[in-house]
Task: structure prediction
Amino acid sequence: MFTIQTINDLLQTRSPLFEELRNAYDLLPPTVCRRKTQCCSLLPEMTLIEALAALQQVKAFPPPLRLQITQNLVRYFFLNAVKISGCPFLQGDACRIYADRFFGCRAYGLWSAAHYETIAAGSRRAKKNLQHQWQTLGVILPREVTDYCIPYCPDVHVVGEETINDAILLKAADRIETLSVSLDRWHQSYQTTYFKDLSFLVASLLLGVTQAVRLKFTIVRDILSTGNRSGLSHLIEELPEILPD
Result:
């Protein structure tokens, strides 16, 4: 399991990988989109190396902003089964970690429609499995959450003369995955324990994996049955900032 000390050690000892990650991102051309931030309704899945790059940015924030991002991530973890609340890194129409935003954010709107449908179909299957798991616990999740899928976007355009296609995007994705795999057992643990979910990782760093899961069940059940969010509000208020100096 990850601890805050584990994260700090990885940030210090594996920092050269972050430059290689940026080189992989550079395989994608710069883009513009007139639907700015409309795709930022969810925190995307990501590799461990991408999660660490984001946490490195968060660690460099001043304490008040670091605490705010911590609260946003933990709140997102507890509420993402209840509502579509937006990415924890979104502030107004700006991304707090734009320079290190995730591959899923960069590639959105660049995939072909056919490949994006393949991605969306996988997402729908995962959500159905999640819905079934909650049902076995006696909790029926809202349809607006379980049926939600970010639609294909035709409004992302490449800046300049560069071309982009699925093969280039898959090459970048493979390079990023290879970088993450080089983190050995930590990469595997992040995938199998935290399901590539940075919000789950952060909540677990602060609360422990078992307690985070138990609290999520209780909070989701209470919100859906009574609308009561006081327990979540109190928990969020008591959180320390992630990765303090």
About this structure: Residues 63 and 152 are 37 Å apart (CA to CA).
